[in-house]
Structure formats: C-alpha cells, structure tokens
Design brief:
By secondary structure, the chain is α+β, with helices and mostly antiparallel strands. It has one domain: Ribosomal Protein L22, Chain A. Bound molecules: coenzyme A. The site of coenzyme A has 20 residues, from helix 3, strand 7 and helix 6.
Length: 238
C-alpha cells in the first residue's frame, strides 16, 4: 500500500532547529479498503462512510493513510485524526490534546500524497498527472505574464505551473476559492519566488506576509504515468 515515506529537510530554521517537512505517499486504495480502515478512528470512519461515492471514499482514505504514515515516527495511526475545516482545509487533531503539525493533502488517479510540516507554519502540496491542457483552460490559471514567459508552453510546464499554484493556495488555506492567476511565478526554477495578488495577497498579509518556499519533483508511482509533485512551506508560524 505504501510506496514511499521520506523526510526532507529544507534549509530553513525554526527556533534554531532545521524545519522538518515530510512527504508521505499512499498508492490508490482499490478493493482493499478494509486494510485502510484499520487506520481510521471511529470519528474518521463515520465521516468516511458518509462520503457519497466510491472514488471520493478511496481518495479520502488514501489521503488519511498517507498523513498517518508521515506521522508514524511519533504517533500511532489511531492517536490522531485527520479532519477538514469547513473550507475543506485538512487539519490534525491529536486525541491526547497535544499540539498538532500542519498538513496538506492531494490525490490523483494513482494515489495520495500528504505533506506535514512538523515544526513550521502552514504547508501545501499538489500532485497531478502530466497532461496537456487546452489553451482556454491554461488561460484560466496562467497569468498573461506567465504565458509570455513560457511557463505554460508544454504539457510538463503547464502541469508544473498548476501544481505550484495549487500548493501555494492550499498553504494559504484558499484552495480554488480564489483566482489561481493571483498566485504568480516569474520562473519555474527550484524555489522560484511566488507573488500574490487580490484575495490571495490579502490572505498572505493576514498570515503576516510569511516567506514561502517551494519545491517540485517529476514523480511517478511505480510503472505509473508521469506526475508532477509540488509543495510549499514556510518556517513562519502565524
Ligand atoms: C483545494 C482544491 C483546489 C483541491 O482540488 P483538487 O485538485 O480536486 O484536489 P487535490 O486532490 O489536489 O486536493 C484535495 C485536498 O485539498 C485539501 N483542501 C480542500 N480545500 C482546501 C483549502 N481551502 N485549503 C487547503 N487545502 C484544502 C483537502 O485536504 C482535500 O483532500 P480531502 O478532502 O481528502 O482532505 C479544491 O477542493 C477547492 O478549492 N475547492 C473549493 C471549491 C472550488 O472552487 N472548486 C472549483 C473546482 S474547479
């Protein structure tokens, strides 16, 4: 069920200690949901059963398993719940009442990924299968300046640009409730600077204008389609 579980140490410090951001993965759960259910608390199982369709239940479950996998060094699966705010943003609740890390979840056809910021501020992650997008779709998320700079000129870059924006907007807790063109990049170089406008800027300012770092990888589940995986983090706890 688990393909990968790694710890990444971005070169950021929190109270003099390296910021720890972990990514954990869970291949798509199909047909063996009973094994995944061993990872759910009664409250999570209640919410899982209430989800309307099988695809949604599989996505939701694989995201929870990825999140709990990321926390395994410190917490057993049933010591923590992965719940969602009304906005959809996921959060952790430790059943012992202890402080919980910040998380973000993404699913795609082949599985789910969870980013956990153990000692830093909010985090965002997105994974998407690399695929070409119609120009009219690209126009909905790539700002003119990004298209002119060639950041959406082929399928790989279109997917990368999308995942970086979605990861950043998840970090801000907005998801797609704001215009993705309001999170803008000048390049797709590693750790390229993100600039925010409109509602995204207002949320970023509300959070105290944290410095947001980003990273991405070309990624594939074993023998799966090429994907793009992007994540954003900040060492500044609001
Ligand atoms: C956040 C959002 C962009 C994710 O869309 P997606 O690409 O379909 O899905 P992903 O698999 O990458 O991410 C899904 C996860 O995002 C997280 N998420 C949802 N809303 C979020 C928010 N406001 N902030 C941060 N994370 C959020 C959830 O953890 C969700 O997984 P879960 O429900 O299993 O816990 C989307 O759910 C959203 O913004 N919805 C708002 C409604 C909307 O405008 N929809 C238009 C769609 S075109």
């Amino acid at each position: 069920m688990f393909l990968y579980n790694t710890a990444l140490a971005p070169d950021s410090l929190v109270d003099g200690k390296p910021l720890e951001v972990r990514l954990a993965f869970c291949g798509r759960l199909a047909g063996d949901e009973s094994s995944g259910r061993a990872w759910l608390t009664p409250e999570e199982e209640r919410r899982w059963k209430a989800l309307a369709c099988e695809k949604r239940r599989a996505d939701w479950l694989s995201g929870r398993v990825a999140a709990k996998r990321a926390l395994m060094p410190e917490l057993a699966a049933l010591d923590v719940e992965v719940l969602n705010e009304n906005s959809g943003r996921p959060f952790l609740r430790r059943l012992d009442g202890g402080p919980a890390a910040q998380i973000s979840i993404s699913h795609c056809a082949e599985g789910a990924v969870c980013a956990v910021s153990i000692n830093g501020g909010p985090v965002g992650v997105d994974v998407e299968t690399v695929a070409p997008r119609a120009e009219r779709v690209v126009e909905l998320y790539a700002h003119d300046s990004e298209r002119r700079a060639g950041l959406a000129c082929d399928a790989r870059k279109q997917t990368l640009l999308w995942t970086l924006k979605e990861a950043a907007l998840k970090l801000l807790g907005l998801g797609l409730t704001c215009d993705p063109r309001d999170a803008r990049l000048r390049s797709l170089e590693p750790d390229a600077e993100l600039a925010f406008f409109g509602a995204a800027r207002r949320r970023w300012e509300d959070l105290g204008r944290p410095a947001i770092r980003s990273a991405w990888r070309d990624w594939a589940w074993s023998a799966g389609s090429p994907c793009m995986l992007s994540w954003c983090w900040t060492s500044e706890v609001p």
